[in-house]
Please model this.
Amino acid sequence: MKPASDPSPYTVYLLRCSDGTLYTGITRNIAKRLEEHNTSPKGAKYTRSRRPVTLIYQESHPDKSAALRREHAIKKMSRVQKEALWMCG
Model:
């Protein structure tokens, strides 16, 4: 477990896959995670067969709990609502 003083924020992100579908996730290192989604076996199973993926939206959260809540909320959104996030953001 990481110490409470660890300053790394969590990022909730939205990816557009090569087939046009959207993928939502959280990470502490967006650059590394995007690289994993595009080239590594550590990328999510969903995105591995839909490469390349493009980062279309991200937002920071101070802790994992807040990031997980927001990820869940985004995953429950309709496609139109998700697209509105990155169109307006």
Observations:
- The first strand starts at residue 10 and ends at 16.
- The chain has four helices and three strands.
- Residues 14 and 57 are 5 Å apart (CA to CA).
